[in-house]
Write a structure and sequence with these properties.
By secondary structure, the protein is α/β, with parallel strands linked by helices. It has four domains: 3-127, Response regulator (Rossmann fold), CATH 3.40.50; 137-242, no CATH class; 245-318; 326-354 and 365-412, no CATH class. 45% of the residues lie in helices and 15% in strands. The protein has 16 helices and 13 strands. The protein has helices spanning 11-23, 34-44, 60-68, 87-95, 108-127, 144-154, 192-200, 224-244, 256-261, 271-274, 284-291, 295-307, 326-340, 346-352, 376-387, 392-412; strands spanning 3-7, 27-31, 48-52, 78-82, 100-103, 136-138, 158-163, 169-175, 178-184, 206-211, 251-254, 282-283, 311-312. Strands 2-1-3-4-5 form a five-stranded parallel β-sheet, with helices on both faces. It is elongated. Residues 127-131, 319-325, 331-335 and 343-370 have low confidence and may be disordered.
């Protein structure tokens, strides 16, 4: 006799269905919510589950996820009943392995015909020795944290393979529900918690579960419940920081002037983030991936850089702007004062000794051997006078050279 479990928060509906199923030759049991149903399944061992989609404590879809993730119950067919017109949830249920989604109100005879057909197909699969596919799905439908929680509840052993965008992949190994190792294709795989955090940060991609005994080297040594607690805390902090940033596919640029101006406000190891921002800009997600290590810390550094306007989605090309940091402006003023002193010397002394009819011209180099040596600044002043320009351009180039020398000095002193 086939056993059918009916899960519905409406006791009257559950009771009527149970009576009709018994009259049709089935053994039936009822539960008012998904939590009670999960507790009843090991003892009742149903051949099929009929469940309402909207349930207290846990939705019908979440209930099915837990049943399908358990290797002992993963082959139990699911039939959903729903009075809702929400097509998306119905499609999601079918995609995740539901055998059918039937609309309420329904005719009992139609339900019985559907159940007999589903059970017949299940028997044919078992008789032909056809194996059920291992649990798989999208990370967007069931998060990594949920998967770990379900594996712990079921005390399952095996490996969960993850595949995310940009060719990222990872594996989590479990022994009796305990995570003992996590690794990714782009990590060193020494610190298991760091690798686990990396996988937790993936918001899209797919997963598949392969149950069985495992023999791998551990890189996670803390208890499973502690792993879940630390993972939940880490994920909340990471998600909160990401919400304060632009979308992770946003290309950002470095504002060099603001970076130099705010050096004393930034952590010493911020250069790990700065070095991963290209001249043409870089995506936030690429920066976080490239920095490696603690992704939470990298995201927090990016948040600080945004708050200080050191990075933004606009390329201001600030290195070539006239606006300069205060310390650089003061250097420029000092240079101007030094420049102003020799400005008036050359003209009067040299021109008074020449005839009035002769136009003042620059003396050739060979004729000036006996004259006092002319400084570079005086040569610069003569050239400026002959061209009729103020010399601002040359001064600006000089200031840029001074700034570049200072920046190179600071960089090699390890202050950036």
């Amino acid at each position: 006799m086939k056993r059918i479990l009916v899960v519905d928060s409406d006791e009257q509906v559950a009771s009527i269905l149970s009576i009709k199923l018994k009259h049709a030759g089935f053994e039936a049991a009822t539960a008012g919510n998904s939590a009670d149903a999960l507790a009843l399944i090991p003892q009742f061992r149903p051949d099929l589950i009929v469940s309402e989609m909207i349930l207290p404590k846990m939705s019908g879809i979440d209930f099915m996820k837990r049943v399908k993730m358990n290797p002992e119950t993963m082959r139990i067919p699911f039939v959903f009943l729903s009075a809702s017109r929400d097509v998306e949830n119905k499609i999601l249920a079918l995609d995740m392995g539901a055998a059918a989604v039937l609309a309420k109100p329904l005719f009992i005879n139609d339900l019985l015909e559907n159940l007999k057909g589903i059970l017949g197909e299940s028997e044919l699969k078992d008789g032909a020795g056809e194996e059920e596919n291992m649990p798989e799905g999208d990370i967007s439908d069931i998060s990594v944290l949920n998967i770990l929680s379900i594996l712990l509840e079921n005390k399952s052993s095996g490996e969960v393979e993850f595949s995310a965008s940009s060719d990222k992949s990872g594996v989590i190994f479990c022994d009796c529900g305990n995570v003992i190792r996590a690794e990714t294709n782009d990590g060193e795989n020494k610190d298991g918690m760091e690798e686990l955090y990396k996988i937790l940060s993936w918001s899209d991609g797919t997963f598949s579960v392969n149950y069985g005994d495992i023999d791998v080297e551990r890189n996670i040594f803390i208890p499973q419940k502690k792993i879940i607690e630390k993972s939940v805390e880490w994920f909340r902090e990471y998600s909160a920081i990401l919400r304060s940033l632009p979308p992770v596919d946003t290309i950002i640029h470095l504002d060099f002037a603001n970076f130099v101006e705010n050096l004393n406000k930034l952590p010493d190891d911020i250069d790990l983030v700065i070095k991963n921002i290209d001249e043409s800009g870089s995506k936030i997600s690429d920066i976080i991936d490239s920095c490696g290590g603690d992704r939470l810390r990298t995201a927090d550094y990016l948040k600080q850089l945004f708050e200080l306007s050191v990075v933004s989605s606009v390329n201001v090309n600030s290195f070539y702007k006239a606006e300069s940091p205060q310390w650089l402006v003061s250097c420029g003023k000092a240079a101007e004062v030094a420049e102003d002193k020799p400005e008036e010397k050359p003209e009067v002394v040299e021109n008074t000794e020449k005839s009035e009819d002769q136009e003042p011209v620059a003396a050739p180099v060979e004729d000036s051997a006996g004259e006092p040596e002319i400084s570079a600044w005086e040569e610069f002043d003569k050239e400026r006078a002959s061209r009729g320009k103020s010399g601002k351009i040359a001064l600006f180039v000089l200031l840029l050279a001074i700034a570049a020398a200072i920046i190179i000095f600071i960089y090699y002193r390890g202050l950036i």
